[in-house]
Amino acid sequence: MTTVALIAAVWLIVAWALAVRVGHALRRRSAAVPYAAFHSVPDGTRYLACHNAGVCGHMQTPHAPAGPGLWRCTTDGCGHITKGD
Ligand SMILES: [Zn+2]
Q1: Phi then psi for 27, rounded to 5 degrees?
Q2: Residue 45: what pLDDT?
Q3: How close is the Cα of 64 to the center of ligand 1, in Å?
Q4: How many angstroms does the Cα of residue 45 sit away from the middle of ligand 1?
Q5: From 12's CA, which of 28, 37, 43, 66 has a CA 20 to 30 Å away?
Q6: Given this model, what pLDDT does residue 80 score?
Q7: According to the model, what pLDDT value does residue 10 have?
Q8: Alpha-carbon distance 20 to 23, whole Å?
Q9: pLDDT in the model for residue 21
Q10: SS3 annotation, the chain
Q11: What pTM does this model have?
Q12: Where are the domains of the chain?
């Protein structure tokens, strides 16, 4: 009888520990998640390599038209002008 009581006590402790962990996981999942802000892209926007190494590092970024044959990088804090066809 003592062994059965001991096994039952261990199972109760394991069940309680699992319930606590599942409760923590569910609470973590339901936390508010920040979402990306969407904004419109100007007509004629193209993806071009931006060679402003300090901000865009030669990555393809959206470029808005900035005059004949010129395109301005729209990345925040960049604004680098690139020549295009
Ligand atoms: Zn850029």
Answers
A1: -65, -40
A2: 93
A3: 11
A4: 13
A5: 28
A6: 95
A7: 85
A8: 5
A9: 81
A10: CHHHHHHHHHHHHHHHHHHHHHHHHHHHHCCCCCCCCCCCCCCCCEEEECCCCCCCCCCEEEEEECCCCEEEECCCCCCCEEECC
A11: 0.54
A12: 1-35, 46-83
CA 33 to ligand 1 center in whole angstroms: 28
Measured in angstroms, how far is the CA atom of residue 44 from the centroid of ligand 1?
17
Pairing of strands 70-73, 81-83: antiparallel
> Could you tell me which of 42, 41, 37, 61 has the C-alpha nearest to residue 80?
61
Instruction: Note the pLDDT of residue 8.
Output: 82
pLDDT of residue 38: 83
Rounded to the nearest angstrom, the distance between the alpha carbon of 79 and the centre of ligand 1 is 6
Segments of the chain scoring below 50 in pLDDT: none
Contact 75, 55 (CB under 8 A): yes
